[in-house]
Amino acid sequence: MGAAEWTADDVRRILRLPTRSDDKYSRGVVGLRTGSQAYPGAAVLGVEAAWRTGVGMVRYLGPEVPTSLVLARRPETVAAAGRVQAWVIGSGTDAAHRTPEEDTALRRVLAAAEPVVVDAGALDLAPVGSAPRIITPHGREHDRLRVQTGLPPAGVDADDDAREAAAVETAAHLGVTVLLKGATTIVATPRGWVRRIGVATPWLATAGTGDVLAGIVGAVVAGAADADDLGPLGATGAWLHAEAGAAAAGALGARGGPITAMEVAAAVPRVVAGVLAGG
What pLDDT sits at residue 140? Predict the structure, then answer.
């Protein structure tokens, strides 16, 4: 028997309504170092998702092409360094083409105190630094990271119980929170806390939705009243992502229909509002 499912009631305890005393900083500032000249869209999707989740500010630091696209889509984004409550790194990047300057910048982020969501092209740096981290690999990325750090691969055909056991082992081995993506998403912390988020719609299996997930999780962490325990925050982000996918696909009919990653991001505010209204 596997871990318990993360539910709407759990999510409701994590999210918070803004108050009259809040400002953009108290609502959370998330910074993203994502996207590349080859994959600029990942930056746009992650920034869009972070804004849609409900933070007070999104900072974006990246190459020229993604920066211009981010600002064209979301001119309220701040394209300058400054204070943040959480980082998202790696989406839309390739470690094989990382410049020495970018490598230094990422290692600096990972050595700081703010929590970091480590995705895609930055996963090779998951063992680096002392910052609290949520890593967001899919199955093959998880296996590569395990081999890199001296653990055996779980295997692409592993069932959910085996995937869960591997995620728990990785979390303990690296001292990070693991958000293992899949039809069933598994979130495990170094202390052995583990939850599952079930598939909401198979229509989510489309390009760019992982970039959206990273932006959502980063926003949840940045806006949290208490970011010390990353497991529930990662599970909340994964649940919002799954439900936004279901909402976007469900708008097309009882069986759902084809959706894009940007449509998933656009559905997040309705999901957040629905959860908060149910309290």
Answer: 97
CA distance 146 to 171: 10
The set of residues, in sequence order, having a beta carbon less than 8 Å from that of 241 and lying 6+ positions away, is 204, 209, 212, 213, 216, 217, 264, 268
> Which is nearest to 121 in space by CA: 146, 88, 153?
88
Q: Which residues of 153-189 are buried (b: 16+ CB within 10 A; e: fewer)?
A: ebeeebebeebbbbbbbbbebbebbbbbbbebbbbbb
Distance from C-alpha of 43 to C-alpha of 130, rounded to nearest angstrom: 25
Residue 228: predicted pLDDT: 79
Contact 112, 85 (CB under 8 A): no
All domains of the chain, ordered by start, with CATH?
24-277 (3.40.1190.20)
Q: 10 with 236: CB under 8 angstroms?
A: yes
Q: Are 31 and 131 in contact (CB under 8 A)?
A: no
**Which amino acid is present at 188?**
A
Please calculate the CA angle 175-169-91 and round it to the nearest 5 degrees: 60
Q: Which residues of the chain have pLDDT under 70?
A: 1, 279
Spatial separation of the C-alpha atoms in residues 54 and 201, rounded to whole Å = 23
Report pLDDT digits (tens) over 75-125.
999 999 999 999 999 999 999 999 999 999 999 999 999 999 999 999 999
